[in-house]
Structures are given as C-alpha cells and as structure tokens.
Specification:
Blueprint lengths: L9 E5 L4 H12 L3 E6 L2 H8 L5 E4 L5 H15 L4 E4 L14 H29 L2 E6 L12 H20 L5 E8 L1 E2 L16 E2 L1 H13 L4 E4 L4 H4 L7 H11 L3 H5 L2 H12 L15
Parallel strand pairs: 1-2, 1-4, 2-3, 4-5, 5-6, 6-9, 7-8
Helix pairs in contact: 1-6, 3-4, 4-5
Length: 288
C-alpha cells in the first residue's frame, strides 16, 4: 500500500486545540502538511490554529452530523482528506461505582463513539481514492487495564480492537490503520496523577506527535509511546492471569484510587462537568 507523504497532505485531527492534539498539529504543519483541527471549544481551536496557519472548526465528536460538517469544512478549505487522526478523548478517574452514568456515557461517546463516527465518515472517500491513513490515539490502557479508570480503559480496549478489525477488513485497499498507545502523557488529562503514577513511564505530548509522524512515514498497526514498551504490549496478553495479578499487586496498580490528587485535578474535572448535560429540573406535584 502506498504511504502518505507528509508535505502537502491534508490531515484532519480531532481534539486539536490543546494537549496531544495541538502537539500533533504543530508537528504536522512544520512538515508541510495541510492541517485542520476540530475541537468542541471553537474559540480555543481558532486561537491555537492562527499562529500555525492551519484550519480550525468546531467539532463535537459525539455528534455524527458535527463530525461530517468538520470533514466537509476540511475538504472545502484544504481538499480531499488524506489522513484522519482521531485524538479527542477524556479521562475521568475514581472508583468505578462512584462514576455517574452521564460521565460514563460521555467517555463512551467521545473516546469510542467519536472514533467510530470519524472512521465511518472518512473511510469511504479514502477507499474510493485508493489511499489514506487513519490514526487512532488509543492508550496503553487499551492493553493494560487501569483500576480507577475502568470505563476509560474499556473505551481504549475498544479502540484498539476497532483499529485492528478495520485494518483486517480493509487490507489491500490502499488505506492504512494505526493505533497509538501512549503511556501517561504530561497533559491536563493526567493532572493529579504524579503520586499515583510513580513508576509508570511518562512522556510529553511532543513524543506522541513524533510517534504519529513516524507511523505516517512508516505505517504500523500498533505503536507504543515510549517505543521501548513495544515488545511488552503483545506478550502481555499471553501471561497467565495469576502471574499478571501477582505483578499488579506488587506494583500497586490501584494507586489511582488512593493517591489521586483531586485538588490538582479540579480544573480538569470542572471542564469535564461542562460536557455533561445538566438534568432537567423535576416538576413539583400540584398540591391537592
């Protein structure tokens, strides 16, 4: 299958106004790619895009119509989409039973539903032109389950499986599929995890962006960040349950539940709350 050259290629990326998404846009534009970033915060996306000279548009990945409009806007401004990067994601943390249905639904809608929408909307044109690359930003949590982030872990396992299944289904059609699996990334999404995440490799958003550029140049189905974890990702699935359980207890993999810094994380949690619809007020029963 033909590889996508970075210079002059049209790239649509979600969640591009901050963090990993912004780092990806910066790295791609520096290589001469023509980039469009979509974000639910349209004002922040426009502000981030201006110094880079990239296209920006509002995008709520949970809404299929919004995603379709973002891709249409990208095509209108830049041309046919060569690369789709599904980056938008959220990561609430805490005990599974304390998580509200609304926050769970938001994670499923953004982390998984948004990826499905993007792939289903961008893939037909790529198949028709016989070339393209879909890059899904997953997580090492898509291979190693994280206590304290159960629903987030579930969405990332799903993205890994979705990427692998689509790659198998459309092999030989000219389109590449890749899942990027970062460890803990030093962004707002991981705020408050300094004590809880000790011993877990930490990387910067620029490291994830570099991995994206690398897989666009040399397509690969799964890419871990940092790269030295690559050999461990697949064999982990073959480790007996009793042995992996013992290893998890030794490294205290449930530290998020006891060591998460809620104060440090407050600003991020407040932003997440803004993504969840407020319940309608109850109607008072008429008095007799």
């Amino acid at each position: 299958m033909a590889k996508i050259g970075l210079s002059g290629s049209v790239v649509a990326s979600t969640g591009g106004a901050r963090g990993i998404g912004l780092a990806i846009a910066q790295a791609l534009s520096a290589q001469g790619a023509r980039v469009a970033i979509g974000d639910i915060d349209a004002d922040l996306a426009a502000k981030a895009a201006a110094p880079l000279g990239v296209h920006a548009a509002r995008l709520d990945v949970r809404e299929r119509e919004s995603f379709a409009a973002f891709l249409d806007s990208t095509r209108g401004a830049l041309g046919p989409v060569d690369v789709l990067i599904n980056n938008a994601g959220i990561m609430p943390m805490g005990p599974f039973l304390d998580e509200t249905p609304a926050i769970s639904a938001a994670q499923i809608g953004i982390n998984l539903g948004g990826v499905i929408h993007g792939m289903q909307l961008a893939l037909p044109a790529m198949l028709e032109q016989g070339r393209g690359h879909i890059v899904n930003i997953a997580s090492l949590a898509g291979r190693f389950a994280i206590p304290g982030a159960a629903v987030y872990t579930a969405t990332k396992f799903a993205v890994v499986g979705l990427t692998e299944a689509a790659a198998a289904e459309y092999r030989g059609r000219g389109v590449h599929f890749s899942a990027i699996l970062p460890s803990k990334v030093r962004t707002e999404l991981a705020s408050g995890t300094e004590r809880a995440g000790r011993g877990i490799p930490a990387v910067d958003a620029a490291d994830v962006a570099a991995a994206v550029l690398h897989t666009l140049r040399r397509p690969q189905l799964f890419v871990t960040v940092p790269g030295y974890l690559q050999p461990a990702a697949a064999p982990y699935q073959l480790v007996p349950g009793w042995l992996s359980g013992l290893g998890r207890r030794v490294i205290r993999d449930d530290r998020i539940l006891s060591r998460l810094d809620r104060g440090e994380r407050a600003a991020y949690e407040q932003r997440l709350a803004g993504l969840v619809p407020k319940p309608a007020p109850r109607k008072r029963a008429a008095s007799a």
